[in-house]
Amino acid sequence: MKYQIMIKIMMLLLSKKKVTAKEIAERYDISVRSVYRYIEELNVCGVPVDVARGRYGGLTIADTFRLPTGYFTREEYAAAISAMDAMMGQVHSESLISAREKLASRQKTERADLSVTGKIIVDGGTWGDVTKFSDKMQVVEEAMNDSRSLMIDYISREGEHSKRVIDPHVLIFKQNVWYVYAFCHTKQEFRTFKIGRIKKASFTGRTFEKRDVKRSEIPLDFYYPAGKLMPVTLEISKADLPDVEEWLGMDNIEPRGENFVAEATLPDDSRLVSMILSYGGAVKVLSPEALKDRVAQAAKKISAQYETEN
User: Which CATH architecture is the domain 2-107 placed in?
Assistant: First the structure.
């Protein structure tokens, strides 16, 4: 029984990074004193368990510690853990919980990197920015996975510069832009932050308890409330279809005669007019009338600038 609990404690520390002695004692129905005794024996056996005292303390295993490599690939581990999570929602089994912890401990042995995952490369940065964006993504993802608070230097859309402590919970990828949904200690509520607007991000040294966040609770409209979104119908020339598909998505575009028509709900701001004009006449506004007038006026203003120069 003693060695079984020691193995369970080791697997728990590998999967969760930091756990308090009290949590372990309650989980395995033993005393806190016994927990520390088992930790000492694990250290003697070569498992580097560190004991941190104080308010933000706990028990951790050094990141350099590795279990022998098993027969699962990283993808197989992830699939198995997801299946076990689904089963645990229906059936409570100590054996299932133990098996899940052992599999999860293997995930910690590989450093997560959103920029390069297997055969998929995701680069959310701008041209010429080779590493800065990827570094920020990596820090945010690590903070989210390990429940570590971040201090961010953030610049809002309005140019407001602020420093905040956030607890990252969910990464969101929408319209080719990465966001993090996090609890903001400054505002004392959940906020959505654009990764590209985070100038700097660093760990605070504190951890946080993850809250139960449901997908339906996350405001996916972000900065655009209902009054700022507008249904738009556009006509698209066949030659420029691929570029517009990347903007609006293929599901919103249908063939109509020799051209194509897109129906979408888009942010009603100045950038919408600029985006339409960027296609150089290949995108024509069919409705609403107010947007047609704004595009026509903007086009005339641009034309007038060049006529003045000539």
Answer: Orthogonal Bundle (1.10)
